[in-house]
Amino acid sequence: MAEALARKGLDLKHQPGFHAIAVICLLLLYAPILVLAVLSFNSGDDLVHFSGLSTQWYGKALANEGFHAAATNTLIISVTSMILSTAVATAAALGTTRTRAWRGQGAAFMVINLPLMVPEIITAVATLSFFSLLASLANINFGIGNLILAHTVFCIPFAYMPIRARLEDMDVTLENAAADLYATPWRAFRRVTLPLLMPGITAGAALAFIVSFDDFTITQLVAGPGQTTLPLFIWSQIRRPITPELNAMCSILLGISILFVLASYLIARKRA
Amino acid sequence: MPDALAAANVLDRQITRRSRLLTLPALLVIGVFGVLPLLIIVVYSFLAPAPYGGVEWHFSTEAYVSFLFQEDIFDGTLSFVPDFLLIYLRSLIYAVVTTIVCLFLGFPTAYFMATRPPRQRGFWVLLITIPFWSNLLIRTLAIMMIIRDQGILNGIMIDLGLIKQPVVMLYTDGAIVLGLLYSYLPFMVLPLYSSLEKLDFRLVEAGFDLYATRWQVLRRIIIPLAKPGIIAGSLLVFIPALGAYVAPLILGGGRHLMIGELIAQQFGTSRNWPLGAAQAIILMAGVMVALFFYVRNTGGKVQHG
After folding, report:
1. Which chain B residues are within 8 Å of A211, Cβ to Cβ?
2. Residue ranges per structural domain of chain B
3. Looking at chain A from residue 196 to 255, which residues have their Cβ under 8 Å from any Cβ of chain B?
4. How much is the ipTM here?
5. Mean of the per-residue pLDDT values for chain B?
6. What is the per-residue pLDDT across B111-161, written as a single tens digit (0 to 9) for each?
7. Selected residue with higher pLDDT from A171 and B85
């Protein structure tokens, strides 16, 4: 039967209709963002009819002061959370990968991945409650630091994953060779392990940045006055009549996310 | 060589200590700013609400009671009010429908991807991964702009003379499910793909040799072997869909409330934090049940391939 199928030039792996469904999935995933991006280049202010190519809405979006302020906040939060989460995630990956199994390692792994298992809205209200308690009991308010800490927590598992994957793929013999050549543990780490691990760290950092950059739910609940981030700013704009300027802002944000995903993907794919 | 053994033991202990120290900072950050807040809302759910948001520190089970009952102001009797329960039920139905549709779309897609030549596979994975990492708020806004009354879909249909009045698509059940489907489809495709990629196609060939039809091969060989991916993907769609906030907020317009919005409302305009905390705990309990189901179905079994 298999041979008969093969003789007829049929592929054993083929299942009828699956190709069409795969194309439908791609269309479903990409059509909305493509429409959004195309209309941001519309010369008119119509969101249905395309009247000509223009970048005027990008000019307006980039000149918008609210957009600037939100971009500044977003950059401060995302870059700081990226650095913090990547640093602790790198250390944790070194402590939990390729090492002698230790008691509590399984539990540690679960704690690191916990932010992925809790629905975001629960994390959001829990973090809000935590900071309000901190403010009322001890009069502690870190200002924008509240958002940075909240973001760092859920960025850690995203930074951790590619670093761990890289470590698991890495060749131990090089580090052993360094040790054989009388390198101190620190020197071996600095000169051998860290450079080899760098692509994993960069990929993890890129993911941590996007996750923080894109976050809406947690930020919306935890943000105090004056802590508007780009997603919050865009949310505030949709209550007004929608213009292509909003499309331009959305496209800029999407473009940045896609750039970072591509970077993370290309860096992580590089073999040791 | 007891000395060498002792030295090795000391070294082992040093390595273990170093591993623990390296893991500690991540555990501290998540412990203090991730786990502790979860414990705080458990405590909050047993307190009384303060008039302007926040809590008053005396023990009360009122939040849980008011989840199902309403107290009569005059005689203090409790009557059953299913409003919140209905919102949970609606969220459950939306999440189940989303998971099923995602599975029916995602399985063929993942299978198609897994049967491409290796070079093309990487490209497909990238195509599915990009929306996964793109801004969820903006992707949902894009849907809203397409399906709203003055949106592009209605605009085109009116231009073509298919309809005279815009068809109301936004703020319907269908809009929310579409949004959820669109948000979480990659969560289904990616684990299914990693399961199907490892599939041993000699088994498929053996099936054909034994005169199985394509459908029988799919049903009796491929689907059972992809079970770990099916379970993982379904869970990864179901859990976030159940607690979804962005899709119902933008595409439901407050008319078809889901759990996520309900909880956010208690912490926002309704200013009843203990009730919101209790609702969050009840949602978390649902998630734990789903996770338990997952562990029981996959725990201890060796994945094929």
Report:
1. 133
2. 1-44, 83-298
3. 207, 210-211, 213-214, 216-217, 221, 231, 234-235, 238, 242, 247, 250, 253-254
4. 0.89
5. 88
6. 999 999 988 998 999 999 999 888 999 999 999 989 988 888 888 888 888
7. B85
Nearest CA in chain B to A86: B26
| Angle made by CA atoms B21, B24, B25, in degrees to the nearest 5 | 115
Beta carbons of A35 and B239 less than 8 Å apart: no
Are residues A210 and A261 in contact, defined by beta-carbon separation less than 8 angstroms? yes
Minimal CA separation from A14 to chain B, in Å: 8
Q: Which residue of A has its CA nearest to B38?
A: A126
To the nearest whole angstrom, how far is the Cα of A53 from the nearest Cα of chain B? 18
Measured between alpha carbons, how far is A7 from B51 in angstroms, rounded to an integer?
78
CB B283 within 8 A of CB B243: yes
Burial category of B29 from C-beta neighbours within 10 Å (exposed 0-12, middle 13-18, buried 19 and up): buried
Of A14, A126, A265, the CB nearest to B38: A126
Output the six-digit token pair for A170: 């890495």
- pLDDT tens, position by position, B253-288: 877 899 999 999 999 888 899 999 999 999 999 999
Q: Which residues of B touch A219 (CB under 8 A)?
A: none
Q: Decide which of 1.10.3720.10, 1.20.1600.10, 1.10.1200.10, 3.30.360.10 is the CATH code for A65-269.
A: 1.10.3720.10
* Whether pLDDT at A50 is above 90: no
- Residue closest to A146 by CA, chosen among A86, A39, A222: A222
Nearest to A80 by CA among B201, B16, B70, B29: B29
Query: What is the Cα–Cα distance from A152 to A146, expressed in whole angstroms?
Result: 10
The region that residue A9 occupies, defined by phi over 0 for left and psi between -120 and 50 for alpha, beta otherwise, is left
Answer for the pair A125, B267: CB distance below 8 angstroms, yes or no: yes
For the whole model, what pTM was predicted?
Answer: 0.89
Domain boundaries, chain A: 65-269
Return the pLDDT at B230: 93
Phi, psi of B64 (to 5 degrees): -70, -40
Strand partners, B305: none
CATH pick for B83-298 out of 1.10.520.20, 1.20.1050.10, 1.10.3720.10, 3.40.605.10: 1.10.3720.10
Interatomic CA distance for residues A46 and A58, integer angstroms: 15
